[in-house]
Write a structure and sequence with these properties.
This protein has 325 residues and is of the alpha/beta class. It contains 14 helices and ten strands. The strands form two sheets. A five-stranded mixed β-sheet has the order 2-1-3-10-4, with helices on both faces. Helix 6 links the parallel strand 6 and strand 7.
Length: 325
């Protein structure tokens, strides 16, 4: 009986020690806030993986994710009100043109995630096939609008020969109900949803026409100056999360569900397809690296289409210094 009490006491002491050690370890981590647009979604699986697998903790970081609007987080990160933000290249270009000190430090999406989607019955195989037809866009703002303008710019198609309708984020239903012939969508959302319902669609990706800088990790200049090691740690851990999610989609999906409690078993199969499609946009032989050529191409496009009215210095837009060679 005494031996059982001793064993029980040892067990309690080990539990207390383990809990104390975990609390101490957590206390030693630096809390940082990471602003991401949209809502909890499997498209953010690399971050969830890096949190759950301890990749951020290995770098001394405790990452708290916030969801909201991209342009808000760009401004907050530049002001030092948030340490990190997820944003697209066009938002960085616009911000720098307005004197906002934000820097793109890690490329996440290798391909711009916007596309034109049309039912196969419409026989729209290229942007030129839109002449005389209609296209629905969520609004005259954001990545969808930038993607639409990029398709027109790169293909040389006259927008006045196309009927453009603002439809909000109702692309799937608008196409299904024949309100529009086609719609500007996110590659990993609406096409997968419609195909899951047995509706075949053609998808014309923006990245097949022009190399625009897509989503990446953004940091304010002040944090880069004052704490470059933190920035390097965040970049390193996020890339590790990206690589893990790409190599282990099933496990990454399982982890993501812990962060998306509203994801039901009914929706899980479609959302797993979303994750797999997303991973195709992330893959690269040089993870995290963005090129001057793609930044220059993005700036030229925005200038020639009137999206950018002030000059910017391309070398100030991004850096690859935090990517491990």
């Amino acid at each position: 009986m005494k031996s059982k009490k001793i064993i029980a006491m040892v067990g309690i002491l080990l539990l207390i020690y383990s809990t104390t050690a975990l609390l101490a370890a957590d206390t030693n981590l630096k809390t940082v806030r990471f602003g991401m647009s949209f809502i909890p979604n499997v498209q953010f699986a690399p971050v969830y993986v890096a949190q759950k697998m301890g990749f951020y903790a290995e770098q001394g970081l405790k990452v708290e994710v916030e969801y909201g609007f991209e342009n808000d987080f760009v401004a907050l990160a530049a002001q030092g009100e948030r340490e990190f933000a997820l944003g697209s290249g066009d938002q960085v270009i616009l911000a720098r043109s307005q004197g906002i000190p934000i820097v793109y430090v890690m490329k996440w999406h290798q391909r711009f995630p916007v596309a034109l989607m049309a039912p196969k019955s419409k026989n729209i195989k290229s942007v030129k096939d839109l002449v005389g037809k209609s296209v629905g866009i969520p609004g005259f703002f954001g990545a969808s609008y930038v993607g639409w303008k990029a398709l027109l710019f790169a293909s040389g198609v006259d927008e006045t020969k196309i009927t453009v309708k603002q439809i909000g984020f109702t692309q799937s239903s608008a196409v299904q109900q024949d309100i529009v012939d086609s719609a500007i969508v996110y590659i990993v959302n609406e096409p997968i949803q419609l195909r899951g319902e047995g509706i075949e669609v053609d998808v014309i990706e923006v990245s097949d026409y022009i190399d625009l800088v897509s989503n990446g990790l953004l940091v304010g200049e002040k944090l880069i100056r004052e704490n470059p090691d933190m920035v390097k740690g965040m970049v390193s851990a996020t890339i590790k999360g990206l690589n893990y999610a790409i190599a282990n989609p099933e496990k990454a999906f399982e982890i993501s569900r812990l962060f998306i409690p509203e994801l039901s078993d009914k929706d899980a199969p479609i959302q797993f397809e979303v994750l797999k499609a997303s991973s195709l946009l992330w893959q690269s032989k040089t993870m995290g690296v963005s090129t001057k050529k793609s930044w220059e191409e993005s700036v030229i496009f925005m200038q020639k289409t009137g999206l950018l009215n002030r000059p910017v210095m391309v070398d100030k837009l991004y850096t690859n210094r935090f990517i491990e060679k």
